[in-house]
Protein: Rhotekin-2
Organism: Geodia barretti
Amino acid sequence: MADVRAKRKSDPSVGGETVAGKRRHTSTALSGKENVVPRARPTSSKKPRLVQEDPAIERLQERIEMETKIKDGATRLLQASSTAAQSMEASKGMFVSNAKILALLREIQQLRAGKQSPATNNSSGLKSCPAKLAISDIRIPLEWQEFENTHGKVDNHTHFGVFCLFRIGNQVMDTPSLVSVDRSTMDITFRDVIIFPEKVDADFTLEVEVYCSLPPEETASHNRPSTPIKMFKRLRGGSKTSSEDPALIASSSSFSDMSSSIPPRRFAIAGHAHLHLSEMSQTCKTYVLKRGAVGSSGTASTGGHNLPLLPLWGQICCKLMAQPDCATEPRISGFINLQRMVGGLPDWVRLWCVVRQNRLRCWKNPEDVGRRMPEQIIELTEGMVVEPAQRLLMRRPHAIFIKDPDSELYMAFESKEEREQWIEALSQSILDLKVWKSSCDFLIPQPNSKFYVDSPSAHFVPKLRGSGAIRGSSSLTQL
Protein backbone atom coordinates (compact mmCIF):
# COMPACT_ATOMS: atom_id res chain seq x y z
CA MET A 1 0.00 0.00 0.00
CA ALA A 2 2.84 2.39 0.73
CA ASP A 3 4.29 1.77 -2.74
CA VAL A 4 0.91 2.51 -4.39
CA ARG A 5 0.45 5.74 -2.48
CA ALA A 6 3.96 6.88 -3.39
CA LYS A 7 3.31 6.10 -7.06
CA ARG A 8 0.05 8.07 -7.00
CA LYS A 9 1.84 11.09 -5.61
CA SER A 10 4.67 10.91 -8.14
CA ASP A 11 2.45 10.15 -11.19
CA PRO A 12 -0.83 12.16 -11.34
CA SER A 13 -2.25 9.86 -14.03
CA VAL A 14 -2.20 6.87 -11.76
CA GLY A 15 -5.06 6.16 -9.42
CA GLY A 16 -7.24 9.18 -10.19
CA GLU A 17 -7.26 12.76 -11.34
CA THR A 18 -5.33 15.75 -10.17
CA VAL A 19 -6.89 18.49 -8.12
CA ALA A 20 -6.90 20.81 -11.11
CA GLY A 21 -8.61 18.11 -13.18
CA LYS A 22 -11.32 17.68 -10.59
CA ARG A 23 -11.93 21.41 -10.55
CA ARG A 24 -12.14 21.52 -14.36
CA HIS A 25 -14.66 18.65 -14.53
CA THR A 26 -16.68 20.15 -11.73
CA SER A 27 -16.89 23.48 -13.54
CA THR A 28 -17.92 21.68 -16.76
CA ALA A 29 -20.57 19.67 -14.99
CA LEU A 30 -22.13 22.71 -13.39
CA SER A 31 -22.25 24.78 -16.55
CA GLY A 32 -23.04 21.98 -18.98
CA LYS A 33 -20.43 23.31 -21.38
CA GLU A 34 -16.70 22.98 -21.73
CA ASN A 35 -14.06 25.72 -21.82
CA VAL A 36 -16.26 28.19 -19.95
CA VAL A 37 -14.34 30.86 -18.07
CA PRO A 38 -15.49 31.16 -14.44
CA ARG A 39 -17.49 34.29 -13.66
CA ALA A 40 -15.38 37.09 -12.21
CA ARG A 41 -16.11 38.27 -8.71
CA PRO A 42 -18.14 41.50 -8.65
CA THR A 43 -16.16 44.58 -7.74
CA SER A 44 -17.01 46.43 -4.58
CA SER A 45 -19.28 49.44 -5.00
CA LYS A 46 -17.76 51.20 -2.01
CA LYS A 47 -15.98 54.47 -2.71
CA PRO A 48 -12.25 54.59 -1.99
CA ARG A 49 -11.46 55.90 1.44
CA LEU A 50 -10.43 59.53 1.32
CA VAL A 51 -7.18 60.56 2.93
CA GLN A 52 -7.75 62.79 5.93
CA GLU A 53 -6.94 66.38 5.04
CA ASP A 54 -4.54 68.53 7.01
CA PRO A 55 -6.47 70.67 9.54
CA ALA A 56 -4.65 73.76 8.30
CA ILE A 57 -5.79 73.07 4.74
CA GLU A 58 -9.35 72.49 5.93
CA ARG A 59 -9.34 75.90 7.63
CA LEU A 60 -8.08 77.50 4.43
CA GLN A 61 -10.84 75.81 2.45
CA GLU A 62 -13.41 77.18 4.90
CA ARG A 63 -12.00 80.66 4.35
CA ILE A 64 -12.25 80.13 0.60
CA GLU A 65 -15.92 79.23 0.99
CA MET A 66 -16.47 82.35 3.10
CA GLU A 67 -14.78 84.60 0.54
CA THR A 68 -16.82 82.94 -2.21
CA LYS A 69 -20.02 83.80 -0.36
CA ILE A 70 -18.86 87.39 0.09
CA LYS A 71 -18.11 87.61 -3.62
CA ASP A 72 -21.50 86.13 -4.52
CA GLY A 73 -23.15 88.76 -2.33
CA ALA A 74 -21.21 91.50 -4.10
CA THR A 75 -22.29 90.03 -7.43
CA ARG A 76 -25.95 90.21 -6.43
CA LEU A 77 -25.45 93.80 -5.28
CA LEU A 78 -23.92 94.58 -8.66
CA GLN A 79 -26.99 93.21 -10.43
CA ALA A 80 -29.24 95.34 -8.21
CA SER A 81 -27.13 98.51 -8.39
CA SER A 82 -28.75 101.58 -9.88
CA THR A 83 -25.97 104.17 -9.47
CA ALA A 84 -22.33 104.40 -10.45
CA ALA A 85 -21.32 104.51 -6.78
CA GLN A 86 -23.09 101.24 -6.01
CA SER A 87 -21.64 99.56 -9.10
CA MET A 88 -18.14 100.74 -8.20
CA GLU A 89 -18.45 99.52 -4.63
CA ALA A 90 -19.77 96.08 -5.58
CA SER A 91 -17.08 95.69 -8.25
CA LYS A 92 -14.40 96.47 -5.70
CA GLY A 93 -15.79 93.80 -3.37
CA MET A 94 -15.65 91.22 -6.16
CA PHE A 95 -12.10 92.25 -7.07
CA VAL A 96 -10.80 91.97 -3.49
CA SER A 97 -12.51 88.61 -2.93
CA ASN A 98 -10.85 87.24 -6.07
CA ALA A 99 -7.45 88.35 -4.78
CA LYS A 100 -8.04 86.72 -1.40
CA ILE A 101 -9.24 83.46 -2.94
CA LEU A 102 -6.15 83.22 -5.14
CA ALA A 103 -3.89 83.91 -2.15
CA LEU A 104 -5.59 81.14 -0.16
CA LEU A 105 -5.22 78.71 -3.06
CA ARG A 106 -1.51 79.47 -3.26
CA GLU A 107 -1.17 78.84 0.47
CA ILE A 108 -2.88 75.45 0.11
CA GLN A 109 -0.46 74.49 -2.64
CA GLN A 110 2.49 75.54 -0.49
CA LEU A 111 1.26 73.43 2.42
CA ARG A 112 0.80 70.37 0.21
CA ALA A 113 4.23 70.89 -1.29
CA GLY A 114 5.72 70.77 2.22
CA LYS A 115 7.25 74.22 2.37
CA GLN A 116 10.11 74.33 4.86
CA SER A 117 9.87 76.40 8.00
CA PRO A 118 11.93 79.60 8.14
CA ALA A 119 15.40 79.49 9.58
CA THR A 120 16.25 80.72 13.04
CA ASN A 121 17.92 84.05 13.73
CA ASN A 122 21.09 82.67 15.32
CA SER A 123 23.05 79.50 16.05
CA SER A 124 21.43 79.04 19.48
CA GLY A 125 18.16 77.90 17.90
CA LEU A 126 16.20 80.94 19.08
CA LYS A 127 13.84 82.71 16.71
CA SER A 128 12.47 86.20 17.17
CA CYS A 129 8.85 86.39 18.21
CA PRO A 130 6.14 87.25 15.64
CA ALA A 131 4.32 90.55 15.69
CA LYS A 132 0.96 92.04 14.87
CA LEU A 133 1.26 94.46 11.95
CA ALA A 134 -0.81 97.54 11.14
CA ILE A 135 -0.68 100.37 8.62
CA SER A 136 -2.57 103.65 8.87
CA ASP A 137 -2.66 107.34 7.89
CA ILE A 138 -2.15 106.60 4.20
CA ARG A 139 -1.78 109.64 1.97
CA ILE A 140 -0.87 109.63 -1.74
CA PRO A 141 -0.08 113.03 -3.31
CA LEU A 142 -1.08 113.72 -6.94
CA GLU A 143 0.47 116.00 -9.56
CA TRP A 144 -1.98 116.95 -12.31
CA GLN A 145 -0.04 119.59 -14.24
CA GLU A 146 2.83 117.38 -15.33
CA PHE A 147 0.40 114.55 -16.06
CA GLU A 148 -1.73 116.73 -18.35
CA ASN A 149 1.34 118.05 -20.15
CA THR A 150 2.14 114.48 -21.14
CA HIS A 151 -1.28 112.83 -21.48
CA GLY A 152 -3.57 115.71 -22.31
CA LYS A 153 -6.28 117.59 -20.46
CA VAL A 154 -8.41 115.64 -17.99
CA ASP A 155 -12.15 116.26 -17.98
CA ASN A 156 -13.34 117.90 -14.75
CA HIS A 157 -16.33 115.54 -14.65
CA THR A 158 -14.19 112.39 -14.77
CA HIS A 159 -14.18 110.39 -11.51
CA PHE A 160 -11.92 107.53 -10.50
CA GLY A 161 -12.40 105.07 -7.66
CA VAL A 162 -9.14 104.41 -5.82
CA PHE A 163 -8.30 101.90 -3.09
CA CYS A 164 -5.20 100.14 -1.76
CA LEU A 165 -4.43 96.44 -1.50
CA PHE A 166 -1.87 95.10 0.99
CA ARG A 167 -0.13 91.75 0.71
CA ILE A 168 2.11 89.94 3.20
CA GLY A 169 2.81 86.44 2.00
CA ASN A 170 -0.65 84.97 1.44
CA GLN A 171 -2.46 87.57 3.54
CA VAL A 172 -4.47 90.09 1.52
CA MET A 173 -6.07 93.18 3.04
CA ASP A 174 -7.70 96.24 1.51
CA THR A 175 -8.76 99.72 2.49
CA PRO A 176 -12.49 99.59 3.27
CA SER A 177 -12.70 103.14 1.95
CA LEU A 178 -13.05 103.55 -1.81
CA VAL A 179 -12.03 107.14 -2.48
CA SER A 180 -13.46 109.22 -5.31
CA VAL A 181 -10.80 111.17 -7.23
CA ASP A 182 -11.30 113.91 -9.82
CA ARG A 183 -9.32 116.79 -11.32
CA SER A 184 -9.48 118.89 -8.15
CA THR A 185 -8.12 116.16 -5.85
CA MET A 186 -4.58 116.91 -4.71
CA ASP A 187 -4.13 114.11 -2.14
CA ILE A 188 -5.72 110.68 -1.81
CA THR A 189 -6.27 110.04 1.90
CA PHE A 190 -7.29 106.83 3.64
CA ARG A 191 -8.13 107.24 7.31
CA ASP A 192 -8.49 103.51 7.90
CA VAL A 193 -6.27 101.52 10.24
CA ILE A 194 -5.51 98.18 8.58
CA ILE A 195 -4.56 95.46 11.09
CA PHE A 196 -3.47 92.13 9.64
CA PRO A 197 -5.26 89.17 11.25
CA GLU A 198 -2.21 86.87 11.25
CA LYS A 199 1.07 87.74 12.91
CA VAL A 200 4.19 88.18 10.79
CA ASP A 201 7.88 87.40 11.23
CA ALA A 202 10.60 90.01 11.30
CA ASP A 203 11.67 89.30 7.71
CA PHE A 204 8.29 90.28 6.26
CA THR A 205 7.74 92.21 3.04
CA LEU A 206 4.61 94.34 2.84
CA GLU A 207 3.47 94.95 -0.73
CA VAL A 208 1.31 98.06 -1.12
CA GLU A 209 -0.66 98.25 -4.37
CA VAL A 210 -2.72 101.27 -5.44
CA TYR A 211 -5.65 100.40 -7.72
CA CYS A 212 -7.69 102.77 -9.85
CA SER A 213 -10.95 102.15 -11.71
CA LEU A 214 -10.84 102.20 -15.49
CA PRO A 215 -13.02 104.52 -17.56
CA PRO A 216 -16.32 103.06 -18.83
CA GLU A 217 -14.93 102.63 -22.34
CA GLU A 218 -12.21 100.36 -20.95
CA THR A 219 -14.75 98.43 -18.88
CA ALA A 220 -16.79 97.72 -22.02
CA SER A 221 -14.25 95.04 -22.94
CA HIS A 222 -15.18 92.98 -19.88
CA ASN A 223 -15.52 89.78 -21.92
CA ARG A 224 -11.75 89.37 -21.88
CA PRO A 225 -10.49 87.16 -19.04
CA SER A 226 -9.33 89.29 -16.15
CA THR A 227 -6.01 88.83 -14.40
CA PRO A 228 -7.54 86.90 -11.44
CA ILE A 229 -9.22 84.49 -13.86
CA LYS A 230 -5.96 83.94 -15.76
CA MET A 231 -4.11 83.32 -12.51
CA PHE A 232 -6.82 80.92 -11.35
CA LYS A 233 -6.66 78.92 -14.57
CA ARG A 234 -2.88 78.82 -14.38
CA LEU A 235 -3.01 77.61 -10.76
CA ARG A 236 -5.62 75.00 -11.60
CA GLY A 237 -3.97 73.71 -14.75
CA GLY A 238 -0.36 74.04 -13.69
CA SER A 239 -0.09 70.45 -12.46
CA LYS A 240 -2.06 67.22 -12.50
CA THR A 241 -2.60 67.22 -8.78
CA SER A 242 -3.84 70.77 -8.63
CA SER A 243 -6.62 70.05 -11.14
CA GLU A 244 -8.05 67.50 -8.70
CA ASP A 245 -7.83 69.87 -5.74
CA PRO A 246 -11.31 70.18 -4.17
CA ALA A 247 -10.47 73.71 -3.09
CA LEU A 248 -9.70 74.66 -6.68
CA ILE A 249 -12.84 72.97 -7.95
CA ALA A 250 -15.02 74.55 -5.25
CA SER A 251 -13.71 77.99 -6.01
CA SER A 252 -14.04 77.73 -9.78
CA SER A 253 -17.61 78.95 -9.56
CA SER A 254 -16.44 82.16 -7.92
CA PHE A 255 -15.02 83.33 -11.24
CA SER A 256 -17.94 82.28 -13.41
CA ASP A 257 -19.98 85.39 -12.69
CA MET A 258 -17.59 87.64 -14.60
CA SER A 259 -19.88 87.26 -17.60
CA SER A 260 -22.94 88.55 -15.76
CA SER A 261 -25.50 90.77 -17.44
CA ILE A 262 -24.16 93.88 -15.70
CA PRO A 263 -20.37 93.94 -16.13
CA PRO A 264 -18.34 94.95 -13.08
CA ARG A 265 -16.12 97.99 -13.16
CA ARG A 266 -12.53 97.12 -13.93
CA PHE A 267 -9.54 98.11 -11.80
CA ALA A 268 -5.89 98.41 -12.77
CA ILE A 269 -2.82 98.81 -10.62
CA ALA A 270 -1.49 102.36 -10.75
CA GLY A 271 1.46 102.08 -8.37
CA HIS A 272 3.17 99.85 -5.83
CA ALA A 273 5.62 100.01 -2.93
CA HIS A 274 7.51 97.50 -0.78
CA LEU A 275 7.91 98.08 2.96
CA HIS A 276 10.07 96.16 5.43
CA LEU A 277 11.00 96.14 9.10
CA SER A 278 13.45 99.00 8.60
CA GLU A 279 10.52 101.28 7.62
CA MET A 280 8.84 100.86 11.01
CA SER A 281 7.89 104.12 12.68
CA GLN A 282 5.43 105.45 15.24
CA THR A 283 4.98 108.53 13.06
CA CYS A 284 4.14 109.02 9.38
CA LYS A 285 7.01 108.57 6.96
CA THR A 286 7.37 109.01 3.21
CA TYR A 287 8.24 106.08 0.96
CA VAL A 288 8.84 105.63 -2.75
CA LEU A 289 5.75 104.70 -4.78
CA LYS A 290 6.63 103.22 -8.17
CA ARG A 291 4.21 103.52 -11.06
CA GLY A 292 2.60 100.43 -12.55
CA ALA A 293 2.76 96.83 -11.40
CA VAL A 294 5.76 95.03 -9.97
CA GLY A 295 8.33 94.47 -12.69
CA SER A 296 6.69 96.82 -15.20
CA SER A 297 8.34 99.83 -16.80
CA GLY A 298 5.81 102.23 -15.31
CA THR A 299 4.47 103.20 -18.73
CA ALA A 300 2.37 100.14 -19.59
CA SER A 301 0.32 97.67 -17.61
CA THR A 302 -0.54 94.04 -18.08
CA GLY A 303 -4.18 94.89 -18.76
CA GLY A 304 -3.56 96.48 -22.14
CA HIS A 305 -4.21 100.09 -21.13
CA ASN A 306 -1.73 102.90 -20.75
CA LEU A 307 -0.34 103.94 -17.39
CA PRO A 308 -0.19 105.88 -15.23
CA LEU A 309 -3.94 106.04 -14.72
CA LEU A 310 -3.38 108.49 -11.87
CA PRO A 311 -0.98 111.45 -11.80
CA LEU A 312 1.08 109.88 -9.02
CA TRP A 313 3.76 112.05 -7.50
CA GLY A 314 5.88 108.99 -6.81
CA GLN A 315 5.52 109.01 -3.02
CA ILE A 316 3.27 107.48 -0.40
CA CYS A 317 2.99 108.62 3.21
CA CYS A 318 1.88 106.18 5.90
CA LYS A 319 2.52 104.89 9.39
CA LEU A 320 3.75 101.30 9.59
CA MET A 321 3.40 99.84 13.08
CA ALA A 322 4.36 96.49 14.62
CA GLN A 323 3.44 95.05 18.00
CA PRO A 324 5.64 92.05 18.87
CA ASP A 325 4.37 89.41 21.26
CA CYS A 326 7.07 90.43 23.72
CA ALA A 327 5.37 93.84 24.05
CA THR A 328 2.14 92.42 25.45
CA GLU A 329 2.84 88.92 26.78
CA PRO A 330 5.07 88.22 29.81
CA ARG A 331 8.02 86.09 28.79
CA ILE A 332 8.56 84.48 32.20
CA SER A 333 7.84 85.19 35.86
CA GLY A 334 8.96 83.82 39.22
CA PHE A 335 11.03 84.41 42.34
CA ILE A 336 14.66 85.40 41.83
CA ASN A 337 17.48 86.03 44.28
CA LEU A 338 19.06 89.29 43.12
CA GLN A 339 22.45 90.46 44.27
CA ARG A 340 22.63 94.09 45.37
CA MET A 341 25.48 96.18 46.60
CA VAL A 342 24.74 97.66 50.04
CA GLY A 343 27.50 99.77 51.56
CA GLY A 344 30.00 98.33 49.12
CA LEU A 345 29.14 94.77 50.12
CA PRO A 346 27.03 92.26 48.18
CA ASP A 347 23.61 91.47 49.57
CA TRP A 348 20.90 89.11 48.30
CA VAL A 349 17.20 89.89 48.16
CA ARG A 350 14.36 87.63 47.02
CA LEU A 351 11.91 89.34 44.63
CA TRP A 352 9.09 88.37 42.31
CA CYS A 353 10.28 89.22 38.79
CA VAL A 354 8.47 89.47 35.45
CA VAL A 355 10.12 89.78 32.01
CA ARG A 356 7.98 91.76 29.58
CA GLN A 357 8.87 94.09 26.71
CA ASN A 358 12.56 94.87 27.22
CA ARG A 359 12.49 95.16 31.00
CA LEU A 360 12.84 92.99 34.08
CA ARG A 361 10.42 94.31 36.70
CA CYS A 362 10.72 93.20 40.32
CA TRP A 363 8.21 93.29 43.21
CA LYS A 364 8.31 91.95 46.74
CA ASN A 365 5.24 89.75 46.27
CA PRO A 366 3.25 88.47 43.26
CA GLU A 367 0.16 90.29 44.60
CA ASP A 368 1.91 93.65 44.12
CA VAL A 369 1.98 93.31 40.32
CA GLY A 370 -0.35 95.93 38.87
CA ARG A 371 -0.98 97.49 42.30
CA ARG A 372 2.34 99.01 43.27
CA MET A 373 5.35 100.39 41.51
CA PRO A 374 8.16 97.86 41.01
CA GLU A 375 10.91 97.71 43.60
CA GLN A 376 13.47 97.56 40.80
CA ILE A 377 13.42 97.83 37.00
CA ILE A 378 16.30 96.41 34.98
CA GLU A 379 16.51 97.60 31.37
CA LEU A 380 17.54 94.92 28.88
CA THR A 381 19.84 96.12 26.11
CA GLU A 382 20.96 94.68 22.79
CA GLY A 383 24.54 94.23 24.01
CA MET A 384 23.67 92.15 27.08
CA VAL A 385 25.13 88.67 27.52
CA VAL A 386 23.44 86.03 29.72
CA GLU A 387 25.43 82.98 30.82
CA PRO A 388 25.83 80.70 33.87
CA ALA A 389 28.02 82.16 36.59
CA GLN A 390 31.32 80.47 37.39
CA ARG A 391 31.10 78.28 40.48
CA LEU A 392 34.40 79.58 41.82
CA LEU A 393 33.11 83.16 41.94
CA MET A 394 29.66 82.42 43.34
CA ARG A 395 28.77 80.45 46.45
CA ARG A 396 25.20 79.91 45.32
CA PRO A 397 25.03 76.84 43.05
CA HIS A 398 22.47 77.94 40.43
CA ALA A 399 23.43 81.50 39.46
CA ILE A 400 23.63 83.42 36.19
CA PHE A 401 25.70 86.38 35.13
CA ILE A 402 24.22 89.25 33.07
CA LYS A 403 26.73 91.66 31.61
CA ASP A 404 26.60 94.66 29.35
CA PRO A 405 29.21 97.37 28.66
CA ASP A 406 27.98 99.47 31.60
CA SER A 407 26.89 97.07 34.35
CA GLU A 408 26.99 93.56 35.79
CA LEU A 409 24.28 91.62 37.57
CA TYR A 410 24.09 88.26 39.35
CA MET A 411 20.92 86.20 39.86
CA ALA A 412 20.47 82.91 41.70
CA PHE A 413 17.73 80.29 41.44
CA GLU A 414 16.52 77.28 43.40
CA SER A 415 17.32 74.62 40.78
CA LYS A 416 19.28 74.05 37.60
CA GLU A 417 16.10 73.63 35.55
CA GLU A 418 14.79 76.98 36.76
CA ARG A 419 18.10 78.62 35.89
CA GLU A 420 18.03 77.23 32.34
CA GLN A 421 14.47 78.50 31.84
CA TRP A 422 15.46 82.03 32.84
CA ILE A 423 18.58 81.97 30.67
CA GLU A 424 16.47 81.02 27.65
CA ALA A 425 13.78 83.62 28.43
CA LEU A 426 16.26 86.46 28.94
CA SER A 427 18.20 85.50 25.79
CA GLN A 428 14.93 85.43 23.84
CA SER A 429 13.99 88.90 25.11
CA ILE A 430 17.39 90.29 24.12
CA LEU A 431 17.05 88.75 20.65
CA ASP A 432 13.57 90.26 20.22
CA LEU A 433 14.97 93.64 21.22
CA LYS A 434 17.74 93.34 18.62
CA VAL A 435 15.25 92.47 15.89
CA TRP A 436 12.20 94.62 16.65
CA LYS A 437 14.05 97.48 18.43
CA SER A 438 11.71 100.30 19.47
CA SER A 439 8.62 98.35 18.38
CA CYS A 440 8.91 96.36 21.62
CA ASP A 441 7.53 99.41 23.47
CA PHE A 442 4.72 100.19 21.04
CA LEU A 443 1.11 99.05 21.36
CA ILE A 444 -1.28 99.18 18.40
CA PRO A 445 -4.48 100.99 19.40
CA GLN A 446 -7.60 98.87 19.65
CA PRO A 447 -10.02 99.43 16.73
CA ASN A 448 -13.19 101.42 17.32
CA SER A 449 -15.92 102.82 15.10
CA LYS A 450 -13.35 104.74 13.03
CA PHE A 451 -10.94 101.83 12.68
CA TYR A 452 -11.41 98.84 10.43
CA VAL A 453 -10.02 95.34 10.79
CA ASP A 454 -10.32 93.03 7.78
CA SER A 455 -13.71 94.47 6.87
CA PRO A 456 -15.20 93.19 3.59
CA SER A 457 -17.33 96.31 3.18
CA ALA A 458 -16.22 99.41 1.30
CA HIS A 459 -17.18 103.06 1.39
CA PHE A 460 -17.62 105.18 -1.70
CA VAL A 461 -19.47 108.39 -2.48
CA PRO A 462 -18.80 110.53 -5.56
CA LYS A 463 -17.33 113.90 -4.77
CA LEU A 464 -19.87 116.72 -4.76
CA ARG A 465 -18.01 119.96 -4.10
CA GLY A 466 -14.84 121.39 -2.68
CA SER A 467 -11.36 119.97 -2.91
CA GLY A 468 -9.87 116.79 -1.54
CA ALA A 469 -11.19 113.27 -1.35
CA ILE A 470 -14.50 112.52 0.34
CA ARG A 471 -15.23 109.26 2.12
CA GLY A 472 -18.78 108.04 2.16
CA SER A 473 -20.56 106.80 5.23
CA SER A 474 -22.71 104.18 3.51
CA SER A 475 -21.53 100.59 3.32
CA LEU A 476 -22.32 97.74 0.98
CA THR A 477 -25.09 96.48 3.24
CA GLN A 478 -26.78 99.89 3.21
CA LEU A 479 -26.80 100.43 -0.55
